[in-house]
Structure formats: C-alpha cells, structure tokens
Amino acid sequence: MKRLTLILLLLTMTAITLHADLKEFDQLSKLSLEQAKELALKHNSAYEAKHAALEGAKWNRQSALAALLPSASLSATLLYTDPATRVSTGSQSYTLNRDMRTLSFNLTQPLFLGGKLYQAYKISSTSEEIARLGYQAQRSILLAETENRYLSVLQLMEVYRLSQSELESAKTNLEIAQLKLENGLISQADYLRFQSTLAAKEVSDLQAYTALQLAIRDFGNYLGDSELRVPMELSPADYALHIEALAQFGLAESKNLSDRAMQVALQRNLGLKTLDKTQELSERAFKIAKAAWLPTLMLTGSRQYKENGLDRYEFDPANQLMLSFSLPILPGLGNYAGVRKAKEDMRKAALENKTATDGIKLGLEASTLSLISAARQSRSALLSKQYNEQLYAQLQERFKLNMLSVKELLDAELMLSAATLNYNTALFGFLKARSALMQNLNLESSQELSQILNLQ
User: Are strands 99-112 and 296-307 parallel, antiparallel or unpaired?
Assistant: First the structure.
C-alpha cells in the first residue's frame, strides 16, 4: 500500500509538470500547411540538389547543341631554325631568316556524321527533361512528406487530448469511488482498481506528451525551421465532404473513380513520364550504335598568313578548302557487337518500362481503393465513437446512483477509449491516404482532387 501511494505521488507530480509544459506548448505559434510546405521547399537540401542537377542538364544540352555548329580556331606559330635554311634559285643562293611566323584561321563544319551529333543532342535534351521530372518529383515527395509529418503531429495532438480527457475522467471516477468507499457502497478492491486505472492513465498521458514533443521537433527539423511551431488544427470542412462522398461509393463508383484517376495519372504521373523518357534514351543510344556503319563528311576551310622567309612581318595569304570523307570498314565485328548490345539494352529498357508501368498503375488503383476504404472506416469509426460517448455518459450517471458495478463502468470506459482512438486513427489514415493519392496524381491541392471526385 505504501509503495502504491508513493507511485501515485510521483505520477501526480509528473502530471503537474506536464500541465506546466502544456502551457508552453499552447503558447507556440501556429503554422498552416501551406506555410509548412513553403518552408520545406526553401530549406530542403535534397530539393536544392535536384535543382542543381537540372541546371547542369540544361548546360549539357547547350554543349551538345554547340557540337552541331561550326567550330573556328585561330593559331599562330613561331619557327626558329639553326642553322638558317638556304635556298638556291639558279645561280643565286638565299639564306632565309632564322625565325618565321605563321598565322592561320580555321573553320570546320561537320556535314554528316551518321546522325551521331543530332542523336547526342536529342539525348541531352531528353536527359534535361528527365532531370526536370526528377526535380518535380522531388518537389512532390517533399510536399507529401511535409504533409505526412504535419498530419502526424496533429494526430498525436489528438491522442494527447484523449489521454488528458481520460485522465480527468479517471480522477473524477476515483473521487466518486472515494465517496462510495467511505459509505460502504464498494469494496477496497474496487477502490484500488480505480486507483490502478488512474495510475495507468497518468502513464499513458506521459507517453502521449513525450511522443507529441518528439513529433513536433522532428517536424521542425524536417522543415529546417529554427522557430519551434505547431500545425494549425484542421477544420472538418477540410475533409468532411470527401469522407461523406467517398463513403457512399459502391463498386461502380469506385471503378469510375479509378478510371478517372488513371486518365489523370497518364497525363501527370511523374514516374510514368520518367519511364517513357528513359526508354527514349535507350532507343537513341541504339541509333547512335547503328551510325557506326555510316560514313562521315567534314568540311574544313582555312586562311593562312605566312612569312616568305626573307622579309620580316611580310605575310603571304593562302586559302585552303578541304572536304573529307570517311567510311568505316574494319573492325566490323566491334561495330556489329556494339549494335547488338544497344539493341538488347533497348529491349531490356522496354521490358523494365512495362513492368514498372504496370506496378505504378496497380499502385495507383490500390491507392484509390484505399482512399475509399479509409473514408468508410472513418465514417464507421465516427458513428462508433458517438455511440460509445452517449453510452458511457449514461453508464456514468447510473454508476453515480449506485446502479452499475465498477467492472461495467471501467469496461465502458475502455470501450469509449478504444472507439475514440480508433476514430482518430481512421480519420488521419484517410487524410494520409488522400495525400498519397494526390502525390501519385501529381496534385498539390485538395481542390484538384475534388474536381476528379466530381465534388465541385
């Protein structure tokens, strides 16, 4: 008995401390979901890395484009000979200057390289598009993860409120039990059961508060926010319409929603777009490999200024125009092997693309059905919670009038706690399922989802 009293005293002191901390928690500034997303986009290093990759891909495309254009070079040569060169012309002999200077300007234009330069440019353009899709995908992932953490904090806030409510209820029940014990209406064992329940609620309250504090700090760290802030509470208007509409869906409505979502995904899903671009890369690599059998044609023009060897800084101009043609003959085996390898790589990419595409489509369908299921669970859990609240209120009044046993009251309290927690889990499960579907469809607002659901 003394040991139990000591435990209760320690838990009571802890509860007082928690309430003091809760006042500080309530004084923290609020953060809307839009503000949280803006902070995440501003400070997330992975998002900035994808942006840097996109900028690099843009410059790589410019480099590939430059290879299609003429190239020009200016060169100068200083030639020193020892001994000096002697030139004989008939009966006369001349000694040329030891130092001679030459200036030249060269211009080269590739006319035909088997399509290699063009395909290289198209590959760089496709790579830039893949980098752009990766940048957009990172943004989508970042926004979805921010919303997920945002909802997790709100969910734990509700859990903590539930633990606070249950703690206050346990205290009230203990006070009633104290009066009943003094009047001989319940046994000492029943009274100890109420004390045990209160101790368990205080432990649960401590655990809920600790989990909430950790979630808040994790949320702030993910946003890179130096100021500790908490999410704003959601309004039922943010989700009630979606839950009510989706909970009414039957098999036909569910299939229609999946079909509409699939149509949107084919246009907007970043994963599907990236797969298509990746397959395009392998196809262009195959075309480059085949170009190894084709000839090359280059046009080169130059204008040269050269000293005659007698008069310093007196240059004689000379022009050259050269058209070069080259046809690869050997080694033919290497070129053939390269073509076959590129063809198999292209086939491999196509098969992997199909497998990944089927997986994305299946995941999208599962995400759609999960959203409908979560809506039904949320509505059912709400009805169960409302029923258990009314039932517990009636049983508590009967207990006050000594018309109900201790076990029946505690069982009803346990059922109410489970129903409330189940509703909290179901509601935030729906909100997270909605966020996951929006990420798959590359949507950034619930209004866009409402259009797909025909809820406008």
Answer: antiparallel
Distance CA 453, CA 456 (A): 8
DSSP 239: T
Prediction pTM value: 0.76
Q: What is the pLDDT of residues 194-205, one digit of tens each?
A: 889 889 989 988
Pairing between strand 30-31 and 230-231? Answer: parallel
Residue 70's φ and ψ, nearest 5 degrees, are -60, 150
DSSP assignment string, 284-308: HHHHHHHGGGS-EEEEEEEEEEEE-
CB 93 within 8 A of CB 86: yes
Segment 407-433, tens digit of pLDDT:
888 888 889 888 999 999 999 999 999
8 A C-beta contact, residue 402 and residue 185 = yes
The string of DSSP letters for 58-118 reads HHHHHHHHHTTS-EEEEEEEEEE-SSPPEEEETTEEEE--SEEEEEEEEEEEEEESTTHHH
Q: Measured between alpha carbons, how far is 399 from 262 in angstroms, rounded to an integer?
A: 55
Closest by CA position to 343, among listed 283, 384, 297 = 283
CA–CA distance, 335 with 291 (Å, rounded to integer): 9
Rg (CA), the chain: 39
